[in-house]
Every structure is written in C-alpha cells, then in structure tokens.
C-alpha cells in the first residue's frame, strides 16, 4: 500500500528500501525519540531518519480515508450500535466524541498565542470520533489549542450529519460535559440527584471508556 509512495524510480543516491523506511518510522512511533533510534539504525544518520519519518508519515496520512470513515450501510450501523450496547446496555449509541491536545512547538508569528491551550502549552486540538473497538470514525486536526471542544464539534461535518439525520447520522453521540446536550448528543449529568441519573452517568462512563483508553494511549 505504501510502496508506490516510498519507492524511488531509480537507484540514484542509494535510496532506502521502503521496508526499511517503514520499520524505522514504526520504531520512532514506538519510542518518540531520535536518540533512542541510534542503537537500532546505526548506519542511517539522524537527518536521513528525520526525512524517512516525514515521508512515511505523509504516505500513511494519504491512506486515511480508506480506514477512518463512518459505516456506509444500515447493517454496519446496526452492528456498531450492538457493540456499543454490549458494553453497558446503552441503547442507540453509534459513536463517542472527544478532543485531545497534540503538543507542538510554538509556530511563531503574531498569531502563535492562539495555539496555546488552557494548560499553558502550544498544541493542536484534535477532535476524534470513535467506535467501540478502539477504531476511529473521524478525525479533525486543524484547530489551534485555544479552540474549545464544543466549537470544533459545532463546526464539524459530524454534527451536520447528526442534525440532518442521514444514514451516517442514525444514532446517538456520547460526549463529555464540554459539549451541549441535545437530541443527538448525550452528556453526563453534572449533578445527578436521583438513582436513575447516577445509573445513566455510570453507563455513559463505561460506554465511553473505550475512547478514554485511546486518549490514555496517546
């Protein structure tokens, strides 16, 4: 799948084999440090490793729409609902949503401060929509760190499809208290005052736990 994007048309400059490029990139993904790669890729300089990681990462990103997508048939949607229901008997759920901050260096310039999030560091606020088996349905990675989660959601195609009620919008969305509750987006009670509300919150948390697992892994 990646080879056409990585393989050079000739051997000029002694290019690296696509298999080596992918392995180097996966190794970097695993530890996040160029220094820790030294013992594994002794014959590749750090500048080349950096170029390899950039090239492979861009090639992987080009394949995103093949894998990160909503179910396209009624059967697939019903299967997703059933898998969510099996987690904590929460009916009608088709996806979970939240945002996570991906740390970046200051981009500089007059507008750099819009990338500083509430925690004080520069970031991209990435919205992710997931299914119950820890896979992604949708990713939005273009908003600076100061952007609120609810603004990203309100500006996204996810909300539009839910409001329209098309095939991809058939079902409920679970989000945390950073989102506004609506007929299509369910959030926890901030101050539950009954057994029913407490049970609702518990089922909501358990159903959404898979998404929190993804964020923890990040």
Automatic annotation (TrEMBL):
InterPro entries: HARBI1-like (IPR045249), HARBI1_dom (IPR027806). Its cofactor is a divalent metal cation. Pfam families: DDE_Tnp_4. Keywords: Hydrolase, Metal-binding, Nuclease, Nucleus. Its main location: nucleus. GO terms for cellular component: nucleus. The keyword Cell membrane does not apply. One of its GO terms (molecular function) is nuclease activity. Residues 97-191 form the DDE Tnp4 domain. It is found in: Nucleus. The keyword Nucleus applies. It comes from the Eukaryota. Belongs to the HARBI1 family. PANTHER family: DDE TNP4 DOMAIN-CONTAINING PROTEIN-RELATED (PTHR22930:SF289), PTHR22930. This is DDE Tnp4 domain-containing protein.
């Amino acid at each position: 799948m990646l080879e056409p994007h990585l393989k050079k048309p000739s051997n000029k400059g002694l290019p690296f084999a696509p298999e080596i490029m992918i392995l180097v990139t996966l190794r970097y993904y695993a530890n996040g440090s160029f220094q820790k790669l030294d013992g594994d890729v002794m014959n590749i300089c750090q500048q080349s490793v950096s170029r390899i990681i950039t090239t492979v990462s861009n090639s992987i990103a080009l394949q995103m729409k093949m894998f990160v997508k909503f179910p396209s048939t009624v059967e697939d949607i019903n299967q997703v609902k059933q898998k969510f229901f099996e987690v904590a008997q929460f009916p009608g759920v088709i996806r979970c949503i939240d945002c996570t901050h991906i740390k970046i260096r200051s981009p500089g310039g007059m507008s750099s401060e819009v990338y500083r999030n509430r925690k004080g560091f520069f970031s991209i606020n990435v919205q992710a929509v997931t299914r119950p088996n820890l896979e992604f349905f949708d990713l939005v990675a273009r908003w600076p760190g100061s952007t609120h989660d609810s603004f990203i959601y309100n500006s996204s195609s996810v909300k539009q499809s839910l409001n329209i009620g098309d095939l991809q919008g058939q079902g409920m969305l679970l989000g945390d208290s950073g989102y506004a509750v609506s007929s299509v987006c369910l959030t926890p009670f901030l101050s539950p005052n009954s057994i029913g509300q407490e049970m609702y919150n518990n089922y909501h948390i358990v159903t959404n736990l898979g998404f929190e697992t993804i964020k923890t892994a990040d």
